[in-house]
Structures
1.
Amino acid sequence: MSFNTPLFLCGPLRSPKQMLEHQEYGGHSSIHDDAMAEKLGFRAGPIEGPTHFSLFPPLLEKLWGKAWFERGCFSAHYQNMVVEGEETRAFVELPAEGATRTRAWAEKADGTPVLDASASLGPNHGPTLLEGRMSLLRPTEGLLILEDLRVGMTGAADEPVRMEANQHMGALYPFSLKDKLAAITEPSPWYIDDAASPWGRAIIPLEMVSVLAEYTSRSAGFPVKGPAVGLFADQEIRMIDGPLFVGEDYLIRREIVALSESKRTESYWVRTHIFDAAGKVLKAQMLLNHASLKHSYAGYAERA
């Protein structure tokens, strides 16, 4: 080998679209609403983090082919918010021949980091980026918004879910898959055409796996105090027996796997298990750090 120089794949600049400006939860608007974002000290409602996941499948398919859609894992820490009108692009470091793990990241056009991530091909992923971050979490002291949560707490019941092409995904996601595909940064016939898909079925895009996993999240009944405004701080989507298909029935089970806090947030980390409709075969998992902004909870400073 002549050089030991890291090389990477780079996608084109893209302009992601804001689709959560009308999102509601807990009886109030979300951080994706411009007025709410400005009230909390942000310049505008940010684009939802998983939107940026769509930048990466073209690069990861280049590395690992269709196997990445079956056994791939994308594990990301969100760094800076993106608002509509800003451009972003994806980068993936070229792994050594035969390697099944690499670094990935996204930047704005001016180089501002958007997210840092690991991408890997299972079943032997090795430590993902978020597993490494979780291993460094410190014990919490005096949580207020999340004081009734415990590690190991599970959802109240199994949650049946599916995603049809024209299905409105509710107050949390006020659009359909068809709406998303009209705006997605990286379109693919695999998302819309059964005949074009290598699996004979249209597949759910990586970013929309997040929507499927969160669609029934209120049913879990986790006793989070409110109202308080939340955001996604870390997120990992892992295919185990993928991909997931449009119009297929699945069953979701949830578990709180960590609690943490920072100067500005209290967080609960939920691992969502996506099974087949019978609840027997594990198809995919999502790890999500739900962060609640302390200053959005009335009287936090006085009550903490």
2.
Amino acid sequence: MLLNYSNHKKSLFAPLKLAITWLVPALFVMACTPSTDKPLQRSQHAIEGSYAGDISNDGKWSVISSIHHGISVWDLEKNALAYQWAQQQSSSDNLVLAIDISDTNSHTLTASRENFALWNMKTGQSEGYWKVRESNIRDIAVSNNGDYLLIGKSNGTVLHVSVDSGRRLEFLGHKEKINTVDMMPNGRVAMSGANDFIAYVWDTVSGQVIYQFNHTSRVSKVALDPLGRYAFSANSMKSAHIWDLKTGKLITTLKGTKRHEVFSSVRFSPDGKTLVTGAASSKVSVWDITTGKRTASWHVTPKEAKRPTGAVVYSLAFSDNNTLLTISSSGYAELWQLPSKVN
């Protein structure tokens, strides 16, 4: 096997004491006008910034990691801290750098470079802890009910784990380091992108390739629409594409993208008309899926500092048809007004 890891289930995870803390909801900072120049609401969820984060698909929960607070789970409807988790001993090498919430909010998968843990969102308890050897974790995804886990690795392999049975499937289609992965909510279809300039959509039961999307540089971001309509892939040289997940054909290429606009987060709207992206440059953009045109853009709030700082947009989610939620490396969760023409 190319991958060796030890599986520590509940009994071995117990020594990592789980601190569950409830906080009084903090007051949101209200913007003066419902404009994308300023957020409608802002709340600080990590005082000195965060290292990773995800917002649930329905916009009700967020999970972020920071050096001082470990892993924090927030109820966004109440703006209240629900749980604090400790994945491993405090160490700069063990910081949680990847987080994924399942589509039904049942489970969250978190990972550092060397280990990953599965959490139950209802109970706040750990359901599994795994340590990976010989290669670093690059990206992760989790299915509904925490049944399947997807782990992209620096050795070019993608591991699909069936939690209940322990079945492991290694996808070996890539020839170089994995940068990004995603998985359908049922865990049956995965997508991965790597430094070999290729994005694959593949079957997690057979390991067979369904579609191959070639790029002109390393693939930096992939995403699957949870409703099975679209796939997204972007490379490091500004090209970004939306594909028909049923046919594998190109729908559109995003227009007006720039090289510094490296996408860090992607979300498809429930009605299938709009794509929103977040970038490492703090930029949030709204795109028309049919035309590929950018219809709006703005920047999330950077971390307060004496010097100008940026912010990586970790995750976005539609709160409703009119508003968008974001969380970023600045530690802020923010609510934004969407332009009326994208409703």
3.
Amino acid sequence: MKEAGARLLHQVGTLPAAREAEAAGADVLIAQGQEAGGHVHGRTPTFGLLRTVLKTTALPVVASGGIGTSKGLARALSFGAQGVQCGAAFLATAESFAHDYHKQRIVTARGEDTVLTDGFVLNWPKGSAVRVLRNSVTEAFDPALTGHDPERITHEVIAHDGPIPRLRQSTDSPLRTTTGDLEQMPLYCGTGAGEIDAIVPAARRLNALCAEAHDQLRSDRRTPTVGQT
């Protein structure tokens, strides 16, 4: 990609991975914390990982994981990040190709309604963990949310995208084109779900997120800290 002249943003979940990405020539590091929805690379909270990565690289760093509002953006910028990567906040928009069922579940969910599991692993290597909204499949896992072997999972068709079958415990989430038992499919979502309360146009969410974060940072700069006059 670098040889083709493209700018490369690489997502990492650990400090060693960040160092490897920088050495390989990445232009921007995305520090993904364990609060993120979808496939999660590390097990460190977002802002703890962000702080560590910022201390060890001169590259621009973007924060990812459980961030979907202006408060999270303002906090990341105050740490020294150059921006944030949002998942669920833009999945729950009018333009998103996710199924409306997935979008509505995000809107009504709270952060504690998500779980980290490697049970949705068909199509991926063993141990590939994802953060999803709780459903009947994860409830059947509980308390064994991890340790699932894709070689031992029955290939049971529960949905379709046109002629393409979707399997129970695969990594396929429901799209606009999906029909079938959507409840059993992985509904990717981070712990910031409780802060997303509506499906809106992406531009409206983006503009509000940035404008409110700007106002918050400006207000924080004007507020004296303890001992200041």
